[in-house]
Specification:
Blueprint (H helix, E strand, L loop, with lengths): L4 H5 L4 H8 L9 H8 L16 E2 L5 E2 L8 H14 L4 E5 L3 H16 L2 H15 L1 E13 L6 E10 L6 E6 L5 E12 L2 E9 L3 E8 L2 E4 L4 E2 L7 E5 L9 H21 L3 E5 L7 E2 L4 E2 L7 E5 L5 H19 L6 H5 L6 H7 L1 H32 L11 E5 L8 H11 L8 H8 L5 H31 L1
Helix pairs in contact: 4-6, 7-8, 13-14
């Protein structure tokens, strides 16, 4: 049973406090074990001396066995993240007055200046591979007006995960609410590598470091003004590549064995029937052997069963991506599709979109918690908005990646709009990005149109005058 958070810090030595804080109610795999599948250099085939034996000749030379490792798990992690966040997360705000609209713009400015889109990619990779992340939001002193009002602090974020060397220790109560989160990391202090341990509760930030074998407090506990843990934590029980290791391993061994066979048989073998007469004659462009009557000289060709090996390798690769519910969007596969339409592309990506829909649930909860943290900070950054901030609704929308067909999108929106334009001429000029001065370009276009209209009116008038004559 987890001890009450106040009891943990009440009258106990630091070592006992940290021991209690490291007790966790959720379970995630050790990153050290996951790394063996994630990084190709740690795959079994790279060190297997039984299944992949080097050939040692009598003269001491060694023919090393081929050891082809494939980073399929690493590629899958990237692809899952890209399908989730390549199209940036969209935020839809619900506002009822001008103050709430200003708050919505400030929240969006906070996300923009914290580079949240690139942060989503980084923490998506960490979450999919190492199974847990904690994003901490904090302020740095700096005067600015980036959020739409004069402000003395800038809000930034940093993500911790086992992938970047941090050990996370969330602490939940009986109802599943997180009452504390801690992370342990190493940092060089002077010439020594020092271990640090930090804990955040709803009202206090603690920081300790190792001195010898003991823990000691680095600084006095810091009060948290927003009265909630200034960050969001997310975890999953298994990585996205869980259960795919046998398929990838079989493919590595298949390709490595075939590589040995190809290397062994790549040197040409000369077959001579009968006895050679004299020595080999060498010309500038050919070599001549003389043999006894009935003899023959020929190269022995190697009849490799290419089809069976290729079929087996392709099947393993297909099942790998099939079980992961991600498409194999390699160049070879994409070029074979040709110029298919937007609806056909959506149909092909159905399985991956269903997978992203399944994965997006935890992400949306995480993003909502993170937004509440930002709102809490915003109340402190601009106290005039304190009573209105929580009245601004924020909905996060995750859109699975698909190659956009702009013509199809415009056509769809125009149909829904009764055939009317969906953007102004000025917006169109601005969006294409070719004009250095949009207003000047608009004036020139209008002048050209006025000149053209005048010329057409002149021609029409001349035509009428001729008809009268």
């Amino acid at each position: 049973m987890i001890m009450d958070i106040n009891e943990i810090f009440a009258g106990q030595d630091v070592s006992t406090i940290i021991t209690e804080l490291k007790k966790r109610s959720n379970s995630v795999p050790e990153w050290g074990e996951l790394l063996k599948d994630y990084e190709p250099e740690y795959h079994k085939i790279t060190t297997d001396k039984q299944g992949r034996k080097d050939k040692i000749h009598t003269d001491g030379t060694v023919d090393k066995a081929a050891r082809i490792s494939l980073g399929l798990e690493k590629l899958l992690v990237k692809r899952m993240t890209e399908f989730t966040f390549s199209i940036p997360v969209k935020r839809i705000y619900s506002t009822a007055n001008e103050t709430q609209e200003a708050i919505a713009k400030a929240i969006e400015a906070i996300y923009k200046n914290a580079h949240i889109n690139s942060e989503n990619i980084k923490r998506g990779i960490a979450y999919n591979a190492s199974c847990e992340i904690f994003t901490l939001w904090y302020t740095v002193q700096r005067k600015h007006t980036l959020y739409g009002f004069p402000c003395s602090f800038k809000l930034k974020c940093k993500t911790f995960s086992p992938m970047n060397g941090s050990k996370l220790y969330p602490l939940f109560d009986e109802t599943g609410d997180m009452i504390a989160v801690s992370y342990e990391y190493e940092q060089t202090v002077g010439k020594d590598l020092t271990l640090f341990f930090e804990t955040f509760t709803a009202d206090t930030h603690y920081k300790w470091q190792t001195v010898g074998k003991d823990w000691e407090q680095v600084e006095e506990p810091e009060r948290i003004s927003i009265l909630k843990i200034p960050g969001a934590y997310l975890y999953r029980p298994v990585p996205v590549f869980d259960g795919l290791q046998p398929l990838r391993e079989d493919l590595e061994y298949t390709l490595s064995r075939n590589s040995d066979v190809v290397a062994y048989n790549s040197a040409p073998i000369l077959k001579i029937v009968g006895n050679l007469i004299g020595d080999e004659s060498k010309g500038e462009t050919r070599r001549v052997y003389k043999v006894t009557e009935g003899g023959d000289v020929d190269y022995v060709s190697w009849a490799q069963s290419v089809g069976a090996q290729e079929s087996h390798s392709n099947a393993l690769l297909k099942y790998f991506w099939m079980q992961s519910q991600m498409p194999d969007i390699s160049f070879d596969n994409m070029k074979s599709l040709g110029n298919i339409g937007y609806d056909a592309r959506k149909m092909l990506l159905t399985d991956s979109h269903l997978k992203i829909g399944e994965e997006s649930g935890p992400w949306l909860e995480f993003l909502n918690r993170e937004c509440n943290v930002i709102k809490a900070f915003l109340k402190k950054l601009n106290i005039r908005w304190a009573d209105e901030v929580d009245n601004v609704g924020v909905e996060h929308v995750i859109t699975p990646f698909i190659m956009e067909d702009e013509a199809a999108q415009i056509d769809m929106h125009m149909k829904a709009n009764g055939g009317k334009p969906v953007e102004s001429q000025r917006e169109s000029i601005q969006r294409i990005g070719k004009s250095a001065d949009v207003d000047q370009t608009m004036k020139e276009i209008q002048a050209d149109e006025a000149l053209k209209a005048a010329e057409e009116a002149k021609k029409e008038l001349e035509k009428k005058n001729q008809n009268k004559k």
